[in-house]
């Protein structure tokens, strides 16, 4: 199988701190690749480098055959991105939000309507195209962001925590749409998530990152076999010494304690 994304010795330093350390991996065209790791492991820094938002300190990235560091425009035309934080305009309709994106990506005017219709149909929002985004639910907004990322016909879609903050039923619906995109359009998907059971259910290949390094990669079966565990969650725990959910919880606790301290000092 052909690799649509190839990463070699990718490193990012922030002053003396190395957030991503010489990571290398390949993503096959048409596959779903999940990038997993605890908070602060380096997932967002990596996805920002892959999508040309952040300049690597060293290393190579090839996307759809283009050097992402030297042929940025061509590399950018090859992918769509959905970041964690919504960047939709709430005061516009769903349709208007996508038109805006299509113009930025120079989608030919005569093709625009047809492409927007197809993108909205695949996420089940065509009938709601005239609604204002401010009236959309969280799940609908995420689906709209996915549709928007498709309108310039990318070969690969980057999704940073696509289901974070959504209820379980809505998360399932988002995964259904992602799987449909992958199966029906042969779209390559690169995603980060901390929902282990969801990664286990959808991903063809997995890479686990901790402290900026890839500590394990392969199919779910390969990882379970090598770590002698029964689930990805168990494998993750064994490899990192941490439960990904505990990690998030402890993050919340730290924030709460800090918030209390701040309140106390004010008095
Ligand atoms: N601009 C920056 N300057 C300094 N340090 C940074 C910067 N961006 C990220 N870091 C640090 O790099 C490390 C990796 O951060 P990153 O956001 O990539 O982690 P992550 O795996 O995406 O975590 P999360 O799930 O919390 O988003 C963290 O220790 C973070 O504090």
TrEMBL record:
Transmembrane segments: none annotated. It comes from the Archaea. GO terms for cellular component: plasma membrane. GO terms for molecular function: ATP binding; ATP hydrolysis activity. Keywords: ATP-binding, Cell membrane, Membrane, Nucleotide-binding, Translocase, Transport. It is found in: Cell membrane. Residues 5-236 form the ABC transporter domain. InterPro entries: AAA+_ATPase, ABC_transporter-like_ATP-bd, ABC_transporter-like_CS, DrrA, P-loop_NTPase. It is a peripheral membrane protein. This is ABC transporter, ATP-binding protein. It comes from Methanosarcina barkeri 3.
